[in-house]
Structure formats: structure tokens, C-alpha cells
Specification:
heterodimer, A: alpha+beta, 2 domains, six-stranded mixed β-barrel, 11 helices, 10 strands, 55% helix, B: alpha/beta, Rossmann fold, six-stranded mixed sheet, four-stranded antiparallel sheet
């Protein structure tokens, strides 16, 4: 009966109740849609880093003045029981010429098999043997080269065996604007070692291994964990997402104030009715219950519609801003939908708390006299 | 047995600027099953007296006993329980809940006393039949006449089988005929053992009472029995 009473009380001020529900719908939709968008953005960014969580990069300890990684270090790393693949990389910056065009670009010196492991060819077949090289997509476009073109690097001629597919953001090698030649052909020293570990649990033992071998006497190298970087990115995105949701939450706050307002008006309008109910035996808690039930119903109504609309809202925002929506129906999206739903309800109930308390604490005699 | 006792009861309303002595040293006993009419001009303290009996207000001085129990020490919750289980209210303005049907209005006090839905529905139907308006059970208060609304209010007041029925000008808003019908219903309830305390201006209604208490300026100026 309390439920029926609450429904009918809301029904007698239909427009006002509808506006309060619209407020909750907007708030819940805004929060949840932004949450879904943020989750998609994070998903797409992290996806572009590929499967690099079990990767570590060994760099010279620049702080201690080391600029290269020596052969001995590479040998030690190769003997580590934790690594499944060790990719030493030479790096230099060179002028690259093709006909009358020239560009300054990064030139990597790497093992051919390692290049095949890390990258895919868009055109041609990856080969670094006998004066061949592979070129990044962006650099190839800038120079106007094709597979088979001959280019000049530091007065050496290389034939392009493959143009690499465009890569997303990476922390180890960025090949889009670079050229890759064989380790032997590259005249510089090693500047980086990419180590793929057998699994994530091997990261700490591997770091210990490096500390006890390569860095035993002097801190010669730094070990950078990809997982930690990805975790930080993940955390940063979560914080940004939370911030965006907090901004969207202002709309829910406004909806809450609107509920507070209409419930206070309702308390004033129904003062006499409250007095009658108290006179015929309603306890204070009963009045509190009736008013909170009304706030709850506004919240449930608005939150259900808002949650459903947020699926479409999240999809649309993601599609419009990022161009593609990858995780609209994922577990995380469901989390945001349920989160938005409950947040809407909590806002409504909290907003109804003061008017309900005020209504329940009216003196019956004063309430009965109210005109 | 005395169901209501006033012992040196005074009620003073104080505001920032003035003080109103609504009741002054009232002593009164109401017997179980009595039909008592409280009469007097406006401002004589009739409604204040009714509100005190109804536990809607507390005296400034003195003590009120309901069924032998003093009410001054009772908490808000205990007073509410006392109102719900022992006292029924009939107001001049009917004061029905406009969003509920007449049947639901009668059910309401039984909801507050946590009776199950089937029991309260049957009881509400029985009460509407008792006051002769079972045919309007599904209508909302604004869909029925004033006389019918007052009958619904009486049925609602009787929902929890109260021993005392407090009626504040129950015929004040009704035409003569409807007023008489309401008074007949009250007389029948009184014959069934319900103590009725009626506040009215209307001199003609004293004929329904066993005793008349007259108030003036917050004091009892006359108590008289009515011979039938």
C-alpha cells in the first residue's frame, strides 16, 4: 500500500515528477556514457601497444654516463634463464637519400628474425640479407620509395625488401619513420636490448638477475618494465575517466537538487495530509518511509531509462570521437551501467532524505492546522 | 470505568508577543460508553480539549489519563500507538487522503497497525457497509458527496476498533439531513459501546449526547446530563 501511495502521490504532480525523472535520466546517461567512452578510449590505446606486458627494455644508465650497451652485457642477458627472446638493437640517426629526396631518420640495426617477430610487412618480404633493408610506412611515403627501390644511407646503398605496416605507439622501437638494416651492417653500438620474458612472473626475478650480474659493480643499465608503463597508462586513463565522470556527475547533482526541491514542495503541500496520517496512527518512520519511497521511485525510474540510454550514448560518443567502439557490451561497460544505475538511485534517495525527515518530524497538531 | 480523566489541566499557548490560556484548570471525567458533547463559543477551548484527549498535544499543566494511564510521560511513538489503537478521529473537513479510494482510506489505519491485506480489506468493506456507503468503495473522495465523505471518515476512524471516538464538528460542513444521518451513525456506534466525545457549536446536537460540558474562556462553566 505504501508503494501504491507513493506512486499515486507522484502521479498527482505528473509534470513535476516527470521533470525530476528527466533530470535523473540526463545525469545517469551523462555519467555512464562518459564512463563507457573512457573505457573504450583506454581499451583502444592499450590495444595499440599490443602484447608487450611481458617485455622489458634494457637501456644504458644515462645518469651514470653510459651511452651504449656492451657485447658482454648482451651475452649475460642472453644467458638469463628468464628470457625467451633477446633482441639487441643498434640505433643511429642518419641521412637517407632516394633520388633527389633526403630525410634524417632513425636507423635501427637488428637481427632479421627479430624484425620478423616484432613487425609485419605491408608490401614485400622482410629480409635484411645482402644489402637489403626494411623501411617504415611513413618514411617510405615521405621519400616516395617502393619495394625494390635503392636508397643511400651514409654512402651505403640498400635495396628495400619490405615496407612495414604502420605501427601504433610503442615504447621500444618506433619503426614508422625509421629504417631497419642488419646488425652487422650497422656500424654503431648497441643502445637497447628488448627482452621478451617467458611470463609476467619472471619480471622481478629477471630484474634481480640483472642487478646481480650486469649491475653488480656499477649501475650500467636500467631495466624498464612494459607492464609497469602499461599499468601507469591504465591508471592515468582511469583517473581521467573518473574526472570526466565527476564533471558529468554535476548534472546528476543538479537532478538531485531538483528532487530535493520538488520533495520539499510536496512536503509543504501535503502538510495537512501528513498531520492526518499521524493523527490516525502513522509513526514518524512511516512518513519517512513514504517520502523516501517516492524519492526512490523517481530514482529507479530515471536510472533504468538513463542506464539503457547510456548504452546508446556511450556508443555514439565513442563512435563520434574515436571512430570505433570496441567494448560496448563488455563486463566493464556493464559495470559502468550498473554503477550509473545505483548512483542515480543513491542520489535520489539522498536528495529525498531531508524532505522525508522534515515531513516525518512535523508536529501532528501543527500539521493538522496547516491550510 | 473512566476512559478519559482531566486532572487540573491547563494549556497555554505562548508566542513571542503574547500568551493565550486556552484551557484553565480543567477537571473532567468521561465514562466508558458515554456520549459527551463539548459545547461553547469559538475560542472557548473545545478543540484544544479534543486535541489533548486525542494525544495530539500535551497539557502545559496537570495530567490527562487515558484508560487510567497518564499520557504526559509517553514518547511520541507511544502516543502514536495510543492514538492508533484507542482513539478514532472524525474531523469537520473529513481529511480523507485524496489519492486513495474510500476503501483504501478506511484501510489506512489498519496498515499502520500492520494488519494483513485480506483482513483489512474485509474489515474496511464491513465498515463501509456499516455507514451505508459500500457502493462507493472504489471512488476517490472528490467523486463522492460531503455526507458520504464524512461517513468514510467515520468508517476510517473505526478501523482499529477504538474505544474513544473524537468528533470535531462532524456535521459542520453538511446540510441538515446529511448531518442528522451522521449523528445517527454516531449514536449507533455509541450504542455498540464506543465512547463518543463530540465538539460542536450546534445546540441541536446536544440531544444525541448523554452529557453536555460547556466551556467559556478555557473553563468549564456547566456540566449537564441530557434526558432522553
Amino acid at each position: 500500500m505504501y508503494l501504491q501511495l507513493a506512486i499515486r502521490n507522484l502521479g498527482r504532480t505528473k509534470v513535476r515528477s516527470a521533470l525530476a525523472i528527466v533530470g535523473i535520466i540526463i545525469g545517469v546517461t551523462a555519467i555512464t556514457s562518459i564512463g563507457i567512452f573512457g573505457e573504450n578510449l583506454k581499451h583502444i590505446v592499450l590495444e595499440s601497444f599490443g602484447d608487450i606486458a611481458n617485455e622489458v627494455i634494457i637501456l644504458p644508465n644515462f645518469k651514470e654516463g653510459y651511452k651504449i650497451i656492451d657485447e658482454k652485457t648482451i651475452e649475460i642477458v642472453k644467458k638469463s634463464p628468464y628470457s625467451s627472446q633477446v633482441i639487441p638493437v643498434k640505433t643511429s640517426s642518419e641521412e637517407i637519400r632516394f633520388r633527389d629526396k633526403k630525410r634524417i631518420a632513425t636507423v635501427y640495426g637488428m637481427d632479421e628474425r627479430a624484425v620478423m617477430t616484432l613487425f609485419e610487412a605491408e608490401n614485400g618480404t622482410i629480409s635484411l640479407k645482402a644489402g637489403r633493408c626494411v623501411i617504415g610506412n611513413v618514411l617510405a611515403d615521405a621519400l616516395g620509395v617502393k619495394v625494390g627501390s635503392k636508397i643511400s644511407v651514409d654512402n651505403h646503398i640498400y635495396r628495400i625488401s619490405a615496407i612495414l605496416k604502420k605501427e601504433g605507439a610503442r615504447f621500444d622501437i618506433t619503426p614508422n619513420s625509421a629504417l631497419i638494416i642488419s646488425e652487422k651492417a650497422h656500424k654503431s653500438n648497441y643502445t637497447m636490448v628488448i627482452v621478451k620474458l617467458k611470463n609476467l612472473d619472471e619480471i622481478e626475478p629477471f630484474k634481480d638477475f640483472i642487478e646481480k650480474t650486469v649491475n653488480l659493480k656499477k649501475e650500467k643499465v636500467d631495466v624498464i618494465e612494459m607492464k609497469r608503463i602499461l599499468d601507469r597508462i591504465n591508471k592515468a586513463f582511469n583517473q581521467v575517466n573518473l574526472f570526466l565522470m565527476a564533471i558529468a556527475g554535476i548534472s546528476l547533482l543538479v537532478a538531485g537538487v531538483s528532487i530535493l526541491n520538488i520533495m520539499l514542495m510536496s512536503t509543504i503541500e501535503r502538510t495537512k495530509e501528513i498531520g492526518v496520517m499521524r493523527a490516525i496512527g502513522a509513526q514518524k518512520t512511516t512518513i519517512l518511509k513514504i517520502f523516501l519511497l517516492e524519492a526512490l521511485m523517481l530514482g529507479v525510474g530515471g536510472s533504468i531509462v538513463g542506464s539503457l540510454l547510456s548504452i546508446a550514448g556511450g556508443y555514439l560518443i565513442t563512435k563520434l570521437i574515436i571512430g570505433r567502439a570496441v567494448s560496448i557490451f563488455s563486463i566493464t561497460t556493464l559495470f559502468y551501467i550498473f554503477g550509473g544505475f545505483f548512483f542515480g538511485i543513491i542520489t535520489s534517495v539522498l536528495s529525498g532524505l531531508y524532505p522525508a525527515w522534515k515531513a516525518s518530524n512535523l508536529e501532528p497538531i501543527e500539521a493538522l492546522r496547516y491550510e | 470505568m473512566k476512559v478519559v480523566v482531566f486532572e487540573n489541566v491547563s494549556k497555554v499557548y505562548r508566542t513571542k508577543y503574547y500568551e493565550v490560556r486556552a484551557l484553565d484548570e480543567i477537571n473532567l471525567e468521561v465514562r466508558r460508553g458515554e456520549f459527551l458533547a463539548i459545547m461553547g463559543p469559538s475560542g472557548s477551548g473545545k478543540s484544544t480539549m479534543l486535541n489533548l484527549i486525542g494525544c495530539l498535544d500535551k497539557p502545559t499543566k496537570g495530567e490527562i489519563y487515558i484508560k487510567g494511564n497518564p499520557i504526559s510521560g509517553l514518547s511520541d511513538s507511544e502516543l502514536t500507538d495510543l492514538r492508533r489503537d484507542t482513539i478514532g478521529f472524525v474531523f469537520q473537513q473529513y481529511n480523507l487522503i485524496s489519492t486513495l479510494t474510500t476503501l483504501e482510506n478506511v484501510e489506512l489505519p489498519m496498515i499502520f497497525s500492520r494488519r494483513n491485506s485480506e483482513e483489512r480489506r474485509k474489515k474496511a468493506e464491513k465498515l463501509l457497509k456499516l455507514v451505508g456507503i459500500e457502493e462507493v468503495a472504489d471512488r476517490k473522495p472528490f467523486e463522492i458527496s460531503g455526507g458520504q465523505q464524512q461517513r468514510v471518515a467515520i468508517a476510517r476512524a473505526m478501523a482499529n476498533d477504538p474505544e474513544i471516538l473524537l468528533c470535531d464538528e462532524p456535521t459542520g460542513n453538511l446540510d441538515t439531513n446529511s448531518g442528522l444521518q451522521i449523528m445517527e451513525i454516531l449514536r449507533n456506534l455509541n450504542r455498540r459501546g464506543v465512547t463518543i466525545i463530540l465538539v460542536t457549536h450546534n445546540e441541536s446536537l446536544k440531544e444525541f449526547a448523554d452529557r453536555v460540558v460547556r466551556l467559556r474562556d478555557g473553563r468549564i462553566v456547566d456540566v449537564s446530563s441530557v434526558s432522553h
